[in-house]
Structures are given as structure tokens and as C-alpha cells.
Sequence to fold (404 residues):
Amino acid sequence: MQSVIAHYQEIALKGKNRPWFLRRLIHNLEAVFEDLDVRKVRAPMGRIEIELGAEASWAEIRARLQRVFGLANFARAGRADLDVEAIAAAILRDLPDEPVEAFRIMVRRPDKRFPIPSPVLEREIGARVQAARGWPVRLKHPPLVIWVEILPGEAFYYFGKEPGPGGMPSGTSGRVAVLLSGGIDSPVAAWRMMRRGCKAVFIHFHSYPFLSVTSQDKARELARLLTRYQLRSQLHLVPFGELQRRVTLSVPGPMRVVVYRRLMLRIAEAIAHRTRAHALVTGEVVGQVASQTLENMTVIAQATSLEILRPLVGMDKEEITDAAQRLGSYPISIVPDEDCCTLFTPRHPLTRARLDEVLAAEAALPIEEMVREALDRTAVERFAYPVVESTVASPPDVEAVTGI
Fold:
């Protein structure tokens, strides 16, 4: 069985724009298999066929398909001639050796020019399988479903389907700038926006040399993990410790966290403009920490004119942790570190900030100068997946660039 048949769901609802979304999905599939033995990716009649070469590893193909946004499901498939006997013979050749409790045949006939109706095909093929293997037929919830799809000039068959990640193809919904803290929440927030077709630019604020480089290392690992879903990423590492120190000299203690967050949004907005991102993304959850009360979130958001997207805002910690474990980011996020949120943080931060008071406190700070200083000292690292030896510098999947 040297093909994969994959189906999309949401793309099918896009009307006249469907071809554009489909081309993007095919492009993403070609890119994700760049270093594997995949001969062709094509889109016959409402589905996608991925033709595998002799050296293709199904385990690796399967793992990568589970990360391609836009796919509803997929299955390893075989091809047969448009003939009942040929289809049944091919299915019998590739059936698993282990006996099954029951099975059924499911036929889809997108090409209505094929003269035999789907129910008749199901009975004909099912009878041949039953005669050869002796397995009973069960129409409701059988352990084995044998799918047959009739297309122009060929038929495909496969045993069961595996779920894809769903969503929209990467790159179809514009670019967003994600504030990637290194904690549990922000990688999940990034993944949820990427699943909606957004390309994510990652921004990490660190306090080196006041604190260790651990938070930067975690941000790199998270960016590397998330790049497996969007194939190309940028990570902007923003030194924030000196700016925090300057804030402590002018801003009352309880108000500092709000001012820190507003300053972060201003810097993130500038990076978003430079990278052509249209919105900022945070992992904020209402009521989770002091800076995430509704009053504080409202005051903080007014530091930027960009849209702020908060895909986790109504979730609880258990839901987010479960999502992080499924994503694979949880083991990285829980590594102990010292991020900028722990530096110069007051014991009793303000929970109900007022904009007029915050603006008065910020008046003592050279905000524009501080933003420029942060941008000038920001480092950018670029990540790629899959890593192709001939096109990527050492170390193998990251290129560090100083400045913007």
C-alpha cells in the first residue's frame, strides 16, 4: 500500500476560495515531506493522495501527517483498477493476517460515471472478503471498516481512518506575534492560533544577565516544537531586565507589573509591524494571576493599537495543562527557570489598575527610548522543519541573527 488518502473538512466549506486553500494545503504537505521518499501530492475529487516511494517510512509519514493543519483524517491506502474483482483481490492481498470480530465495507463513489451503485459494490466486495476470511459482517460499530473510494480511472481502499489535527492550513489566516513566556499557557495559545491557519512569530522577553539563560533555552525548545506544525519560525529574544530595573526607579511597587506588561506589548507591537504580523497573541486567562484581572487586562491592552487575541481566556488550568501534554510542550514548560516575571516583582501587585494612574506613572519613563533600546538589542533566531542538510547552517535547525 504505497499511497495515503487524506480528507479535509473545513476547506470544503470555502466556496469559490476553496482552490486557494487547497493549494496551500498541498504546498504544506510537499514541504513537510521534503526530506522523505514521497513521489507526488495531488488532489483528486475532494481528497488528497500522497504517493509514497519505496523507501518511505510509514511511521514517520504518519507522525508528520498528525501535525499538518487542515487534514481531517488520513489512512494508508492501496490502489486498484476499476473492477469489482480487482478491488476485492487487492483488498484480500493487503488485509491484516489477524482475525477480526466483524467487518463492513464502506464505499464512496465521487465519480458517478462508474455504473455500479455504492450499496451493490459494498455487498459484492463484502461477500468476497467474507468467503475468503470467514469474518462476520456487522454494520454498526464493526472493529474493522474497509473503505473503498471510486475515482475517475482508479479505486483506492484502506482500513480505518486516523484523525488529523483539523483546523485550517498553515499560512491561510495571516501572521500573528505570540508572546512566548516559556510557561504552560503561551505555547498552547500559539498552537491554537496556528491551528486556525495563522503563522506565528514568537517573542520571548528575558532578563539575562540579571537571571540565567534557562528561560531562553526553554523558549528555543518550544519554538522548535511549534515549528513542526508551521515549518518555518522566527524567535525574537528581547532583553527586558534593564528596562524592568528602570521601571522600578520611577513606578510605585504595586503598579510595576501592569507597566511591565504594557511595555512588553509596545515592544511586541513594534516587532509585529516589522514582521508584518496583524495581531498579538497571549496566553492570558481571566483571573489566573494578578495581571490577568479584567481591570488589569483592559488597562494593559490599551498600550497597543493592535488586536490582542487570547485563545485561552476562558479555560481553566487543568484544561490548558491537558492540552500542553497532548502538544508535547508540558515537559519543556515545567523545567524550573527564572523568567522576567520573577524579576523586580512586588509582593502585592495591583489587581485593579486605573488607566489615569498608570499613565501618570509612565509619564516619568522615556517609553519610546526604552522600546527602541529593546529592539536594538533583540536577537532573532530562525527555525526550520524538516531540517535539510544542504540548506541549513550549523547548529542544524537554528540560525542566530543579531538585530532585526
Summary: The chain has two domains: 3-163, 175-402. Residues 257 and 345 are 7 Å apart (CA to CA). The chain is about 35% helix and 20% strand.
